[in-house]
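User: Just a sanity check before I run the rest of the batch. Below are the structure tokens for the first item. I only need the designed sequence back.
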């Protein structure tokens, strides 16, 4: 039964996700919450792992979630489920698309889909930011927030905010390679964990 649920859930994600991996994040989160496969903080960890590993974020997420929910075959099932719709749709519509690529209706449809994709990506960014910058329950021992337990600011993860600012500066101002930013951010996170 778990294999069927994994396949159907990730098939839906693969079928209704327009705009690539980031646009899939809200759909993946919705399915995970509906089936209680991962908590919000575990989901953010999945996104981080999926970003750091080679391959599409949806496939990496599906593999990880499937493996966590039902072991090796769960990972295979979820990965197959998320990849199958794209394969089927491309095989079916590729010939039609090239015949009618310049048709005005086709152009109008894509103009309508683009803003939705932007909205899905923004929604995913908000979900990730909410979990990254705010503590869900108690403030972990050894963090900046422990000194502020009587203060509403104690729910803010200051370490994450510092890492975020450093990352944005590195990427935009100094044009540092994203791989180096990810590795550097992991190192800074480890330093914060052990020092603070």
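Assistant: Here's the designed sequence for the first item:
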């Amino acid at each position: 039964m778990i294999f069927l649920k994994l396949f159907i859930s990730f098939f839906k994600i693969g079928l209704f996700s327009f705009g690539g991996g980031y646009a899939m994040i809200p759909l993946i989160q919705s399915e995970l919450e509906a089936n209680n496969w991962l908590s919000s903080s575990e989901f953010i960890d999945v996104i981080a792992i999926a970003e750091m590993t080679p391959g599409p974020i949806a496939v990496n997420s599906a593999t990880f979630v499937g493996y966590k929910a039902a072991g090796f075959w769960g990972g295979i099932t979820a990965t197959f489920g998320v990849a199958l719709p794209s394969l089927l749709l491309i095989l079916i519509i590729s010939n039609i698309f090239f015949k009618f690529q310049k048709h005005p209706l086709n152009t109008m449809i894509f103009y309508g889909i683009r803003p939705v994709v932007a909205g899905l990506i923004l929604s995913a960014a908000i979900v990730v930011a909410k979990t990254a910058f705010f503590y869900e329950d108690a403030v972990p021992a050894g963090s900046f927030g422990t000194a502020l337990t009587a203060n509403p600011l104690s729910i803010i993860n200051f370490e994450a905010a510092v890492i975020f600012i450093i990352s944005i500066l590195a990427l935009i101002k100094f044009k540092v390679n994203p791989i180096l930013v990810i590795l550097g951010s992991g190192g800074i996170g480890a330093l914060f964990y052990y020092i603070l």
